[in-house]
User: What shape does this take?
Amino acid sequence: MGGPERLFAVTISGKRKADMSEDDYHEYISKTHAGHLKHLLVQKQIVDYTMQHNTSELMKGIHNLFPHLSSANHSSYDAFITIVFRDVQDYINVKNDPHYTSVVSPDHGNFADGPSTTMSFGWFERHVAGGQLVEK
Assistant: This one.
């Protein structure tokens, strides 16, 4: 699927469990869940693993960035997690690994509102990295 230049990404639009505070959720996914997952991602040659943390406090300031944005257009997701890989099989290998199936996957029940969480999949492009233009 694609040549060596094309990267792929899964983006998870995450919602926290209803009984979990924002602070507890963000700390949990950053420390505990990422701790379960990141070494496996490196082992399986995953290119990138990032989290964008959205909090109600930060969202109060979105009007500074987008003054004409309607509140109806504010994202209700608590986090966006992006995993970037060179080949779809690399990510399949992660999901089929015994550590993923026995530790990482069951851990989602500790923090995630599964029915409200959504996923997207597509190709990934970098245009600026480390403050530098990325030329193709």
